[in-house]
Amino acid sequence: MKPLFFRFKRGLLFVAAVALALAMTGTASAAPRTSDLWWLPDVASRSGEKIDQLLYAIFYLTAAVFILTQIVYVYFLIKYRARKGVKATYSHGNNRLEFIWTVIPTAIFISLWGYGNHLWWDVIHAEPPADTLEVAITAYQFAFSFQYPGADKKLGRTDVKLLSNDNLFGNDKDDPDSKDNFTSPNLELPVDKPVRIRLNSKDVIHAFYVPEFRIYQDAVPGRTIDWVWFVPTKLGSFQLACNQLCGSGHYNMKAQIQVVSQEEFDKWYKEKTAAVALSNSSDRAYVRNP
């Protein structure tokens, strides 16, 4: 028994050392948290507020059940403790009580499933408003690229078969709606305005993950994910991260999200579209006068 005990002890020490190493290195490149270190980051989207409501409901329900069961547990430990002169008696159980404590958890789980399913469709799959800003996002090893519609407010047709190093968004170059699109190194968004993302992956499975927005969506090669939309509700800078192990550079695959006022976004957007229009006119002039 002694050698077995020491092997078990060494195994525990090894597991503890591995866990400590992962804890020290796993967050080495993550964005620093300055608030709510032991809980969720501040929510910054309208849909995220609904998700938090479900999360808190589950948390408080679980806490209440835990406290109640521990009270009952301690009560039975004391009431039915071993005492001299008192013999233990056998109890077959109570069918009515067993039925009740089976039905109640079942009803709770079904209710949570129904509410969660409703929330999933309401948050993710509901049709966004007509004035929604659409942004194309392509994930690749190991970065994100963002494309905005030009002055016509249309991204144009895309096809995952057209994705390449020279065409990161799979644009159909014969579609005039895509000729005035422009790219940005950061995801610039107006506050309190619906945003819909058109998500692609050029190589392997990546993820669109923003904790403050409570959004997580995988980007799958060969598919265009175009049903995710949200409404940013707070000004500030946030981090987009890949949450799928996508290769050696995964640890550093991230991008900056800047949520600004509508006026500031309109100014930025006007400058970008004007630069694209000037570039397109210069190209046409060059073609006419080689």
What is the structure about, briefly put?
The protein is α+β, with helices and mostly antiparallel strands and 290 residues long. The protein has helices spanning 2-25, 46-79, 95-125, 262-288; strands at 133-140, 143-148, 182-184, 187-190, 195-201, 206-210, 215-219, 225-230, 236-241, 254-260. The radius of gyration is 27 Å and the shape is elongated.
Overview of the molecule:
This protein has 290 residues and is of the alpha+beta class. It has 2 domains: 46-79 and 95-125, no CATH class; 133-288, Immunoglobulin-like. Helices cover 40% and strands 20% of the residues. The protein has a 5-stranded mixed sheet. Strand 1 and strand 2 form a beta hairpin. Helix 2 (46-79) packs antiparallel against helix 3. Mean pLDDT is 85; it is low at 4-8, 25-30 and 285-289.
Q: Helix proportion of residues, in percent?
A: 40-55%
Helix and strand run: HHHEEEEEEEEEEH
Strand order of the largest sheet: 3-2-1-5-8
Major sheet summary line: 5 strands, mixed
Known CATH architecture of the largest domain:
Sandwich
SSE blueprint:
Layout: H1 2-25, H2 46-79, H3 95-125, E1 133-140, E2 143-148, E3 182-184, E4 187-190, E5 195-201, E6 206-210, E7 215-219, E8 225-230, E9 236-241, E10 254-260, H4 262-288
Parallel strand pairs: 1-5, 4-10
Antiparallel strand pairs: 1-2, 2-3, 5-8, 6-7, 9-10
Helix pairs in contact: 2-3
